[in-house]
Amino acid sequence: MGRTMGPDTAEHSPASGAGGGPGGNAAPRAAPPAVEELELELLLEGVHQLHGFDYRGYERAILRRKSKALMAQLGVATLSALQEQVLHEPAAAAALLRALYVTPATMFDDPQEVSLLRMALGVCLHGAALPRIWLADCAGAQQAWTLAILLEQEQLGARTEIYATVANDALLSEAQETTLTLEQLAQLQLNYQRCGGSGRLRDYFVFEGERAVLAPALRSRITWASYNLVTDASFNEFQLISCRRALPDFGPVLRARVLRLFHDSLTHFGVLALDRPLDAGELLAASYQPLLPPAPWYRRIA
């Protein structure tokens, strides 16, 4: 299911709800804002110190919302109670890391993104001998599978490599082991048609009993890797980089760091797909020009 590369990170098993669950008696309660702010900072510091994952540069409002959703799932009342589980129970730590990551995608779930990809692929890939695309903080197997199918339809699949990176080894295993039920595939056919797809989506899959998985010829073009956007350095040069689903979670300092990383990893005239337009005052803004305005997709010109 793709090839694995990149730095190793600690892998955890999926959360089992140990120490609390939907059936527990505890219910989230409102803490004073100052107390809740301190609890969140301590939780982030604990995750960093014990598990090596640094979310301290992320937007606090987003972290708070995702943490509270997990609190409700685990049946704990406060962020301090969540921290206790995360520090002492591997399953709870794995659940938090999953909760704080980008929301998993489903295939062809964004017609606008698919339309922009169809237009951008030819622009940035046709002139390259061996084109490479980086899905940074990839939203799961279905996001990468969508791109692989689009490349095949644009007659670019045979020579284009997709690098799909995720934040830890548990997410890596999840992506590599993904399969779909026949019912899910039938539902995704509707997404596919809404995105302008013709024919049958199932033609790009092989079937193992009651499960479907992307055809080996397409799957082999996806290189899966565990990669940390907060700490890791540039590892290759790409014609297209997309991180538009994860970037909204980043605070200003982390966002600037990640955009510099992408700049260092993008070829001249390569395409950068973002979540929002570059500000005129941003350090790297002068190096890019809009590719498909008003969408925040840019071509590197310097």
What does this structure look like?
This protein has helices spanning 33-51, 60-74, 79-88, 90-100, 111-125, 141-153, 169-176, 182-194, 216-219, 252-265, and strands at residues 3-5, 132-135, 161-166, 180-181, 205-208, 211-214, 222-226, 238-242, 266-273, 288-290, 297-300. The model is unreliable at 1-25 (pLDDT under 50). The protein is globular and about 55 Å long. The chain has an eight-stranded mixed β-sheet with strand order 1-7-3-2-8-9-11-10. The protein is built from ten helices and eleven strands. The longest helix has 19 residues, at 33-51. Helix content is 40%, strand content 16%. With 302 residues, it is of the alpha/beta class. Helix 6 links the parallel strand 2 (132-135) and strand 3 (161-166). It has two domains: 3-100, no CATH class; 111-177 and 221-300, Vaccinia Virus protein VP39 (Rossmann fold, 3-Layer(aba) Sandwich), CATH 3.40.50.
